[in-house]
Amino acid sequence: MIKIEEKVLDSTFQFSAPVTANSPELQTLFDFIALGAAERDRDRILPYDVVELIRRSGLGALRIPVAEGGGGSSARELFEAAIRLGDADPNVAHIVRNHFSVTERILRSERTPRNRRWLKAVVDGAIIGLASTELEVKRAGGGQVANTKLTPDDNGYRLNGTKYYSTGSLYADLIFVRLLTPNDTVATALLPTKRDGIDLVDDWDGFGQRLTGTGTTTFTNVRVEADEVILETDTDKDNLPYNIVPQLFLTAINAGIIRSVLRDATALIHKRPRTFYHATTEQAADDPILQQTVGQIASNAFAAEAIVLAAAEVLDRLPAAQAQGEESETAVALAASLSAAKAKLIVDELALKSATLLFEVGGASTTKKSSNFDRHWRNARTLASHNPGHFKARAIGNYEINGTPLPTRGFF
């Protein structure tokens, strides 16, 4: 196990401020995260220390403007960083997915004192988690709320309820909660995870993405201040709750997994002391079949990254479209939703194919638990299972045939 000591935190990683997507030390951090990824996944070692490094790096503030203390990165640069982090460790990349999604919502909102306070917390290193899903609702991902509700308490509220699949919240400083007000209207709140009554449970038992903290969150008589609640009528509420960022982020992680598969495939060939019985050469590195297989994985990695970044570039067109009016904004939002959906269908397939090709490179010895090469397929399959592809394909086809727009708005 790679354990990060305090001296490593304090001396080995000295981060510039603000960190940008192109900061050399950011790649150094990603390389370090990659060193322990296979072992953490195999032995289910929760990456608290890695998340602490991310906190100190300022990675979470990539999209916040430089004038406000952040990295000022474009959407394309954010997703490029997401691919690199997914390459290093898809679990860690998934942990911060909701952080960037919530930060994006705050960035699009009016700069009131509370939104400035929250952005300042992110600049200072705070990581944001999410508590949205309830099993009692009819549609997953729609932001519906059934049982998590505020009740009045002096000048504030008390919160009670249960959420599931709270990805990243186990490691977070703040948690973004979808809830019902006393009037049964849907609202959100951003709360410190250490507050009394918030219980984050590590009960996610999926075969992939084992370390993401995608567990149950319970709220028992939790004190909520009035200015921590974002009502639908608030002027600083995000009026553009696009669900494109969190969905494309998952696809970016799968693109990163293909890069990791390529790295492992190449290393396997160079380490092989012998080749296969039917091979045409004595050295694995000279075998044309293995060269072809690695070439296919490399091409898959290139295509996946290009597809994700092309979709991200559509997101970068949104601010200008918003300035031109609702019609322009709606057109770009639809294009972004279509791009993200199409990207998912192709990249998910490339990730699963590439993870399988790795075993064609290494043979039966690659199935050993100690190597944990199966993590690539398990993680890619788990990520792809979010918003299953056949629903995306049907929506795309319905648009192409009948002009029915894809959903662009929703709650993650």
Task: Note down, in words, how this protein is organized.
A hairpin with a 2-residue loop joins strand 2 and strand 3 (156-163). The longest helix has 37 residues, at 326-362. Helix 9 packs antiparallel against helix 10 (288-315), helix 9 (244-271) runs antiparallel to helix 13 and helix 12 (326-362) packs across helix 14. This protein is of the alpha+beta class and 412 residues long. The protein has a four-stranded mixed β-sheet, with helices on one face. A four-stranded antiparallel β-sheet has the order 2-3-7-6, with no helix packed on it. The protein is built from 14 helices and eight strands.
Tags for this model:
about 400 residues; alpha+beta; four-stranded mixed beta sheet; four-stranded antiparallel beta sheet; 8 strands; about 10% strand; globular
Topology:
Blueprint (H helix, E strand, L loop, with lengths): L5 H7 L11 H12 L1 H7 L4 H10 L17 H14 L1 H6 L1 H11 L5 H11 L4 E4 L17 E5 L2 E8 L10 E7 L5 E7 L5 E4 L14 E9 L4 E2 L13 H28 L16 H28 L2 H7 L1 H37 L12 H10 L4 H14 L10
Parallel strand pairs: 1-4
Antiparallel strand pairs: 2-3, 3-7, 4-5, 5-8, 6-7
Number of beta strands: 8
Q: What is the overall silhouette? A: globular
Q: If strands are numbered along the chain, what order do they take across the biggest sheet?
A: 1-4-5-8
Major sheet characteristics: 4 strands, mixed
- Counting helices, strands and paired strands, the structural category is alpha+beta
Oligomeric state: single chain
User: Can you give the helix content as a percent range?
Assistant: 40-55%
Order of helices and strands: HHHHHHHHEEEEEEEEHHHHHH
Number of helices: 14
Strand content: 5-15%
Distance between the termini: 34 Å
Spans of at least 5 consecutive residues with low confidence: none
The whole-number mean of residue pLDDT values reads 91
- Computed Rg: 22 Å
